[in-house]
Each structure stands twice: as structure tokens, then as C-alpha cells.
């Protein structure tokens, strides 16, 4: 995507200050460490917690973002074709999906969104903290998969328990993209550049939710499930008319570190498959750009972005 540097004011600004040596705590460890205040537990499915130590909160966000990005990038480097099976792209699709899924996690965190599992011990501590500040004992948070949105002004992370790990992650990611697309129009920059980038983000959202048909924006997981569990889309032997040359897909995906693909793929075989791989590549590319942005605007050469995901990119590119 062109002009993606326009999103810099929308990123959590304190992420630029996180060093590699200090950020070694993920979301669950952050919860266990207790660097927060429980402000409210409105229902067993909702928790409002205040990050009373912003430095530790942003360390955690940076750590999880880099952890997910590194795994996503390594997965992309593991994508290759099998010459003797020129139309086999099943495992290419599965790997591309997980690279995009991991990148979605990483991207969300840069804008203050989280998706994480909280076990019984974590919610027990949250409930205990709530009672310390006088919250009612009759309403207690329950363990499960939580999505969260961080409010930079109040420093409160609004957590909500979800039901489906992948489906709800994509729903949270789409919410993040929708807010980004709207907020872009208010940042400093040339109006036509902001509008172009906003449209490109909106186009990605349209692919993820199939033009509004999927409320959770989980098109990629649906496509992956069709490939993985039902052997659809003619990507397994015996192949069909909609089978796509795997070399063409791999060549396209390999351009994920570039702003624009080296060549525009012509995929008359399957528009649905093209949409799938376009979205996967675009999501990983956005992730790569965000990680580079955080590294470039960091005042420290030992920032976590250079020392972790970008170091992996450097090693793999040799």
C-alpha cells in the first residue's frame, strides 16, 4: 500500500521507545505481574482495567507484536512450491493463512487492540483485584478468549470475552482496520494520499467480509477451512480447471516486503483464490511496514523491532 506512513500518528507512540532487552513479557505475564488497576467488571464477560504503568503496558504490546510478526515472517519464508506437483497449492494456502493470522495479531497491537486467552488463574487474579477496590463480589469475570481495545486517553483496556478464537480475531482485526480507515482522513497529509490509502484499507475490509456478507470478516479462515478440512478449491490432487500454478502464487507472495508486487497476477482460474492470496500478502506486508516504521522512529539502535523480527528478515534475505 502506498502512503502507509500516514498511519504513524495512529500507532501507540510509546511503542517507539521499547528496547529489546526490556520487553520480555507477553499479555498473560503482564496480567500476572499486576501492573494495572481493575476499574470495573460490568458482566462476567467484560473487564475494564487501567494500565497504571504505561511503560510496562507498551513493553507488553511491543513484545507480543514482535513475537507474532516474527512468526508470520518466518512462515512466509517457508512458503515454496513443489516442482513435481505444479498445481498443488494446498499447503501454500494454509501457510499463507497462518502468516496473515499472525500478522493480524501483530498489526492490531500496534493500534491498541488485543486478542488473548485468559486462563482461570488470570481471571481469579483480576477478580481479586476488583474486590480490593470495592467491586461487587456477585459479578466475577470468567476465563476464556478476550478481545481488547485500549483507550489512550483514559489508559483503560476494555476486555470482552469472545467465543471463537479465529473468527473473533478476524472480527477484531476488521474493527481495527475500520477505525484506521476513518482516522486516516484526520491526520496531517495530502488529502488525495489519505483518501487513496483509506480506500485501499476499505477494499481489504471488503475482501475479508465478502462485501458485507460476513459480519466477522472471517473470509480467510473460511477459505483455509475449505482447503484444509474439505479439500476444496482444486488445490489437492486430482486438480481441476480452477487449479492455479503454484509457482505463480509463490512468486506473488514472495513480494510481501515490497510496496507493490513485482508483477500483477492474472488469475482467471479463481477470483476467490486471488482474493485470498491478495489479502494474505497485503496483511503481512502491512505488518512488515509497521514493524519497520517502529524501528525507524525509535531513538534506540537496540529497539525490539530491529533485534527481533527485522533481524529475522535480514538473516532470511542473505
The class by helix and strand makeup works out as: alpha+beta
Work out the helicity level: 40-55%
The order of strands across the largest sheet is 1-2-5-4-3
| Poorly predicted spans | none
Q: Which overall shape is indicated by the principal axes computed on the Cα atoms?
A: globular
How far apart lie the N and C ends?
25 Å
Average of pLDDT = 93
Radius of gyration: 20 Å
Strand content: 5-15%
The total of beta strands comes to 5
Q: How would a crystallographer describe the biggest sheet?
A: 5 strands, antiparallel
Question: Outline of this structure?
Answer:
With 318 residues, the protein is α+β, with helices and mostly antiparallel strands.
Task: Explain what you see.
The structure is a single chain. The protein is an alpha+beta fold and 318 residues long. It has a domain at 4-21 and 62-112 and 164-316. Helices cover 51% and strands 10% of the residues. The protein contains eleven helices and five strands; from the N terminus they run αββααβαββααααααα. The protein has helices spanning 27-33, 54-77, 90-110, 120-132, 165-184, 191-208, 219-230, 246-253, 271-296, 304-307, 309-316; strands spanning 37-43, 46-50, 113-118, 144-151, 156-162. A five-stranded antiparallel β-sheet has the order 1-2-5-4-3, with helices on both faces. Strand 1 and strand 2 form a beta hairpin. Helix 3 (90-110) packs across helix 5. The longest helix has 26 residues, at 271-296. The radius of gyration is 20 Å and the shape is globular.
Amino acid at each position: 500500500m502506498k502512503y502507509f506512513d500516514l498511519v504513524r500518528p495512529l500507532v501507540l507512540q510509546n511503542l517507539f521507545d521499547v528496547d529489546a532487552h526490556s520487553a520480555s513479557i507477553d499479555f498473560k505475564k503482564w496480567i500476572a505481574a499486576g501492573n494495572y488497576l481493575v476499574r470495573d467488571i460490568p458482566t462476567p464477560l467484560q473487564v475494564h482495567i487501567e494500565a497504571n504503568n504505561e511503560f510496562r503496558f507498551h513493553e507488553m504490546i511491543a513484545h507480543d507484536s514482535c513475537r507474532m510478526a516474527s512468526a508470520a515472517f518466518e512462515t512466509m519464508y517457508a512458503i515454496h512450491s513443489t516442482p513435481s506437483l505444479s498445481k498443488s497449492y494446498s499447503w501454500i494456502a494454509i501457510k499463507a493463512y497462518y502468516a496473515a493470522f499472525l500478522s493480524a495479531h501483530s498489526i492490531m497491537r500496534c493500534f491498541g487492540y488485543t486478542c488473548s486467552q485468559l486462563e482461570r488463574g488470570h481471571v481469579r487474579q483480576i477478580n481479586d483485584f476488583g474486590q480490593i477496590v470495592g467491586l461487587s463480589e456477585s459479578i466475577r469475570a470468567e476465563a476464556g478468549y478476550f478481545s481488547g481495545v485500549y483507550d489512550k486517553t483514559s489508559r483503560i483496556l476494555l476486555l470482552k470475552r469472545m467465543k471463537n478464537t479465529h473468527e473473533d480475531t478476524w472480527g477484531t482485526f476488521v474493527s481495527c482496520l475500520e477505525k484506521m480507515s476513518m482516522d486516516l482522513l484526520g491526520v496531517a497529509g495530502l488529502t488525495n494520499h489519505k483518501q487513496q490509502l483509506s480506500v485501499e484499507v476499505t477494499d481489504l475490509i471488503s475482501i475479508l467480509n465478502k462485501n458485507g456478507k460476513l459480519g466477522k470478516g472471517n473470509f480467510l479462515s473460511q477459505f483455509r477451512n475449505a482447503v484444509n478440512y474439505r479439500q476444496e478449491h482444486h488445490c489437492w490432487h486430482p486438480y481441476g480447471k480452477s487449479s492455479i500454478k503454484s509457482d505463480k502464487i509463490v512468486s506473488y507472495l514472495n513480494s510481501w516486503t515490497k510496496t507493490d508486487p513485482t508483477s500483477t497476477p492474472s488469475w482467471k482460474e479463481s477470483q476467490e483464490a486471488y482474493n485470498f492470496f491478495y489479502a494474505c500478502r497485503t496483511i503481512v506486508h502491512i505488518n512488515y511496514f509497521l514493524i519497520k516504521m517502529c524501528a525507524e522512529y525509535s531513538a534506540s539502535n537496540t529497539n525490539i523491532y530491529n533485534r527481533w523480527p527485522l533481524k529475522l528478515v535480514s538473516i532470511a534475505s542473505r
